[in-house]
Amino acid sequence: MSELMPAxxxxxxxxxxxxLRRLDGLLHGDYRTLxxxxxxxxxxxxxxxxxxxxxxxxxNVTARLQTPYVKEYYEERELTxxxxxxxxxxxxxxxxxxxxxxxxxxxxxxxxxxxSRHGNRVGALFYGTNVDTVVPAxxxxxxxxxxxHRMLKRPRGAKAPSSTRLLDLxxxxxxxxxxxxxxxxxxxxxxxxxxxxxxxxxxxxxxLVVIRLYDPLEMALPDLGLLTIQDAETAEQLLVxxxxxxxxxxxxxxxxxxxxxxxxxxSYAGVDALELSTEDDIVDxxxxxxxxxxxxxxxxxxxTSQFGRRQ
Length: 311
Hints:
311 residues, Rossmann fold, alpha/beta, six-stranded mixed sheet, two-stranded antiparallel sheet, 9 helices
């Protein structure tokens, strides 16, 4: 009688068969469209060219020569990637069959697998009600399975005594990640304000990829009559009449204000966000992401971009 397959192994195999195989076909094996090598040693200076990353401009040399110059780095053959996972109670929400937490776990597993198969190291920090888990960086399939196991065994449904502080996750990560790394921040950004400066500081030192998770019901409230809605962070409940047009209008205005504030915060931090819905196909989202990564340097010159934003 064969031994039952452990849950992490079963999930990883499912993702390898369904998602990674499709993604390989779309990327034609060129995973570097998703992950650029990150160098730490300065190799040379050269004159700025169209589509160069403006973050690599050497402003001292540029001012002295009156011509833009960029820094070139020796590219590391291997890189270290970190996943900063917001697994706070609001991530458990999903209006259909998939929750934000599930999307975050699947996407993390997929990205970690892509990175590990090329010899790179992956690690993670988890935030629940605080930063409660650090998975040290390691390589190989066993590391991906360990990461997935640690995500799966986390309790679901616990309510936080107060709202999420994404700032704590970003600040802890800055102390844990000693070498320049590729950093993925996965969160729904339902959090206390004040995280923008910490994210900007991370982006100055690391290659930062922000993935904002959301559910469509958080963006538009349908006419469903009387509903009891609950704050996923604090468990506070409120009875509302969604048939009331004035209420739905106020809800829409609040969503617009929140979205504008969030994208202003991304702009302040100097990062772009891939927005991932609970209804999105992950392969399609990653393909869209890879296409946008090709133009990220050009977009960086134009201020706030539409990188990964819903149309």
